[in-house]
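Quick check before the chapter quiz. The format below is the same one you will see on the exam, so make sure you can read both the input and the output lines.
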Amino acid sequence: MKKLFLFVLLATGFSICAQSNYAISSIPSELLLGANSVLLQHKIQVDVSKEAHMEVRVDRVVTVLNKMGDAYVRAVAYYDDDVKVRKIEAYVYDASGKEMEHYRKNDFNDVSASDGFSLYTDDRVLYMDYTPTRYPYTVAFSYEKVSNTTAFLPRWYPLEGTATSTLESSYTITYNPVNTARYKAVNLEGYDIAISEEPSKIICRAQNLKARKFEEHSPPFLNTAPQVLFALDRFYLKGVAGYGKDWNEFGRWMERSLLGDVNDLPEATIAQVRSLVSTEKTPLDKARKVYEFVQNKVRYISVQIGVGGWKPMLASEVDKLSYGDCKALTNYTKALLDAVGVPSYYTVLYSGPNGRDFDEDFSAMQGDHVILGIPSDDDIVWLECTSQDMPFGFGGTHSDDRDVLVITPEGGKIVHTKKYAFDESLQHNTASVQLDPDGGLKAQFQRRSMGLQYDQKYYLEKFDALKLDQYYKEHWDYINGFTIDSIALQNNKEDIVFLEGLKLTVPKYCSFIGEDLLLAPNLFNQSQFIPPRITDRKQPLFLPIGFKDVDQIEIELPEGFVLEEIPEGYTEENKFGLYSSQIERISARKIRYTRTLIIKKGTFTKNDYSDYRNFRRNVSKWDKSKILLKRA
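Here is the expected output.
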């Protein structure tokens, strides 16, 4: 699905403007504040007035103030067998605006844009290979492209990220009135941005956008950045005509033009899977068998060719070759399910842990990944068809809690994937600990992880002994000098539970105060994270994952030591979650430490950040608290 971003990337590569005053002294001081780079001029011109033809010209001038700003030069132009770069040029200027370098087309490096795991890709990239020797410097970059694809109209991002500002940015799209360009503006409030419409033209302009400071626990930048989306009701994708005035029509087009002729399977494979599910009674049980069949047979490998990288390989080819990308493996699984009478939905989404949504009321080419949905009563069970390890019906943070496009027989629909409640993402730690009189201990530890916490652990079963030892020593880096005597891991894919059992020896865990021992009873789950202090915060507080941790540790005191007084426990509950810790006496020589931490997923106001910071500071304080064991 990488091709989906091709023309989004066009909006971030840019072309030579006429010589202007590029001296840093000419940049308004307010645009330098908190900035690593300044976008001096940014002009995007898109022409889709001709059927099945798009021309894009981009002019970009960026002043880089320090090494952190190098990433915003973006003097690159992507192309393939459908997208041609007609012109490309760049100039480099010093701090006074004096020309230092001039790059013509032949001076740009021309390389494959392979991502390192694609088997086939026709993507290539032209890029300027410039290594700065001093700062600041300015790059003026321009290119022109032509393409027969009009499905991916560049978005406009007048502010390109944190710690970068914009002096001037504009976007003009010219279209045929018979096929009017649609647009949607998002997050423009508070910025000097204007949008105007003329006959056959939309013009966007922005100026003097100050740099935004990165703030811990903020929403993903694209969720809050000012931007304008564009689309055509009738478009072309590598010569294939497409339609999508709304998601229903878009889905019908995908089903007919991209998916309708790729589901063929050999008769032998059809007979094999039908035999495989012959004893299963329910559609989900049949689907589980088919999913396991796919996981055992195929492997994921990216294939970035075809109709804009959107049309899957033939199911019969996947069956023959035993590999495919997300489109191919999802389509193959769907074809197998069709063969055994289980309906399923090809589904397009934005993947990754930040949960980016499809825009529900603006149909356009969106997404970067494909999964499969199986209807089950009023719900949908989601399958990640590219993974040979993921349990049936589990996608983890790669696909949870977001709006996605489901291709149904009736057309496209926007639906929401599973959102895990905090108590579904449970980590339950139990331990039995024996202290010795010298302050050392031996422990038997068990950890049970479910939901999104399973997603953070199940990969451990692939680690060798050395890598596992390293993982646990980094995970418990506050425990000095411990050794792991044994490790037992169990991945219960049916219940989606990951179990860990360890035996540990810690020679010197407690510290001495005179003849007494000082013990931190929270051995295995000390939270040391405290969000940084942020004054005059601008962004909302964003907590991307909700979870629940429960710890229960029984500690046998060493011979000759007693806990004279049980310390008072601590509980704090608020809108962000809950923290509770307490100690109880089981017998004269045994105590039990119990801890619960709940963090709730959500977006809160910027003013809530200081309260959340105080909450996490209290958690850290109580997690590290110690008790005194007196020598009897």
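If your answer matched, good. The first strand starts at residue 37 and ends at 48.
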